[in-house]
Amino acid sequence: QVLAYNRHTYETVAQSLVLTVVPAPGGEPPFQGEFLVGNRDVEELLPPTAQDTFIQATAGVWERHDLHVINVTSALDRGGRVPLPIEGRKEGVYVKVGSHGTFSPCLASAVSPQSRFRCRLGQQPLASCYDTFAPLFAIRWCNLTLLQVWPSPTAPGPVWGSGILEEDGDFQPPTEAAPQDLLPGYLVTLLVPLAVAVLLCLLLGHLMCCRREGV
C-alpha cells in the first residue's frame, strides 16, 4: 500500500499496488555506486525518463554502458533535514546505480582517502574527469559511496530421507526423569509470605492500639 500526500493541501491518497519481484537476468550487479542528488526530490527521479537521463549522465563518469538504477531513496529517510520553504530548495535523493564492470578512475579518486580528507576540511573532493551530471543534477561528491557486493554462498538445504527406519534403527525413547519432592519448595513458598504478613499485622496492631496517647 502506497500512501502519498499533497505538499500544498496535505491531502492524502492511498493506493494498493501488487509488485512481482523477479531476479535480474544477469544477477545482482557486484559494483554499486550511490549518488546524492541535492537539487531533486524523490518523486522527480521516479519516472523512467528521469532515470534514463540520470543513467546517461552516470555513464559519462563511470565509463560503462550496462548501468541501471537499483534504488531511489529520499534524503529525508537517511536523516536529512526538511528544506526551508524557499524557492528552489529540494529534499535531496540517494540514487544507487549498479554495473557488472569495475569503477572508473574518476569514481575511485572521488572516494580516495585524500578526497575524504578534503571533504572533512570543507573543500571540493578530487575528481579526475569532467562532471557530466551538471547542470541537470547537482551531485554531492563528498557523499558518494561505492560498494562491491559479491553473492554469498547459499548453505545446502536439509537432505530428506525416505521416512522409513532402517534395520536396527529402533527408536530409543529418552529415559524418564527421577521423581522430585516438591513439598519443601511448596511450603517455603506458602509459609514465608504468610509469616511475614502475620508479623506486619502484629506490628501494625501494636502501633495503632498500644502506642496511642494516654495508653
UniProtKB/TrEMBL annotation:
Keyword Transmembrane helix set for record: yes
GO terms for cellular component: sarcoglycan complex
UniProt-listed InterPro entries: Sarcoglycan_alpha/epsilon, Sarcoglycan_C
Membrane-crossing residue ranges in chain numbering: 183-205
Ranges of residues in domain Sarcoglycan alpha/epsilon second: 31-146
Keywords, ordered alphabetically: Membrane, Transmembrane, Transmembrane helix
Protein name listed in UniProt: SGCA protein
Organism annotation: Corythaixoides concolor
Native organism taxonomy: Eukaryota, Metazoa, Chordata, Craniata, Vertebrata
